[in-house]
Design goal:
Strand content: 15-25%
Helix content: 25-40%
Radius of gyration: 22 Å
Number of helices: 14
Oligomer: single chain
CATH class of the largest domain: Alpha Beta
CATH architecture of the largest domain: 3-Layer(bba) Sandwich
Distance between the termini: 38 Å
Number of strands: 21
Length: about 550
Amino acid sequence: MKNLHTLPKIICWICAILMGVTANESVSHASSDLTSNDFDVIVIGGTPGGIASAIAAGRLGSRVALVERFNHVGGMTTSGLGKSDIEHREMIQGLFKEFVEGVRVYYLEEYGNDSEAYSLCKDGYYYEPSVAEKVFLDMIEEVESIQLLTGHRLKSVATEKDVPKSAVIEDISSGETTKLTGTIFIDATYEGDLLAMAGAEFRLGRERRDVFGEPHAGVFYYDFRNKKVLEGSTGEGDNRLPAFTYRLCLATDPENSVPIEEPPPGYDRENYVGYFDDLEAGRLSAPKNFKPGRGYFPEHFDTLVRALSVTLIPNDKTDVNMNPRPLAFPFAEENEGYIEGDWENRLKIEARLRNLTLGLLYFLQNDPQIPEEHRKMAREYHLPKDEFVDNGHFPRQLYIREGRRLKGVKTLTEHDVTLDENGEDPPYPGDSIAIGEFPIDSFPVRKKQPGDDAVLEGYLSMMDKITAKYGIPYGMMIPEKVDNLIVPVPASASHVAFSTIRMEPTWIAMGQAAGTAANLSLETGVTPRELDIEKLREALIGQGQVVPGE
């Protein structure tokens, strides 16, 4: 693997060494120059889905460019999402299983079979951000034909007759641009930037209920505690998106902690005082159905710390999600304008969400109205000294749960991902290239509205329902018109169905299929649209991917 970095990034890397960065920490690798600007496959987005796409294509012999905005790869998996969201481990194998095994072996060799760290890695499915990045980088570096270009963002795409031919990327540090030419392009961004620039049609926001006849589409209030639809559920469509947040890695070891000693810029406690009402109303109590691994910490029940969902990961660290169930949840609507905004606007929204997140931690740890025992509990969690060392110990990647969604040859809907009236899995599409298995789960899209007393609008939590194991069709990665473009991450699904495929293990499986399809297209001289599906399915099965039959 060849890796391109600019001088400022090298300086940052050297500084990290001088500061005492350990081998576990995520630092940029040494730089090298582009030896060629022409590739077989260009992957935009160093997310887990993008990494899988690049590895799958590269292993089969394609020359691959993997372009990532940050100086680090791994998307959410290396930015605080410290556990793999998967209900049925046997359903997703292939490259995802290789990643999991790499994590497991790391903790085994580093700490031993009887260590707490090895136990907490849960056979490789739980991990520290830096460990996840190390495993991803090791997998990428094994493939010589991959050129990794970090610290670059997509600037434009040139097409001819609905076929992308080249992409211009910009070095964020220097502002220098580079034109990359390629044959097959893969959009593995959370935002869907490549598909939009290539001219593919897409959806943004929520469909009306009658578009696909989905029971949970559009404006919706769902009482997840009592499993019933509430008044105000009109089913009308809009352009709202599930709340974006940051997923945190917080340390509990005082020796590895960076306490938040002052409020972040723009701090306003009024953003959080609604949590007192949530506490009084019992909305911070224990769930009716307790399931391990869902961020349920019993000692946090009926305290303000339940504003967070906390899960233990190795080495005295935690995976911390923002709990979307309290009505005071402050993050909804803050993403307005992000997806279609320019980079200046996106950075402003990212800063706002970062400060809202830090503000919540500061509030929980310091606000005098909070009971002292709650504050003491909250002060057990701090930013980790040995993670995100070049970003103020705060995660880099914003948790973009949904952005643009391709309009593809096939569109996955709620009907395709839920059990039928007999409790049976839906039939597998003939072009299935992977299996989806996570429940419908979408964050709120609006802040507390007048009259809201149970749940925020748009929050779809089917976590207690039996999950269907459904086939993911190849056609949902193929645009209706644009050729030589494969879209494994912002793929073609309704808003409701997208909330089940938007899990990194699923995206890795889809990325593996996308990279394999790209190489098969090149080998056989056809577009991805014309590819022999059975050849693709056979190739994926040969790689250890779980591919359902018809």
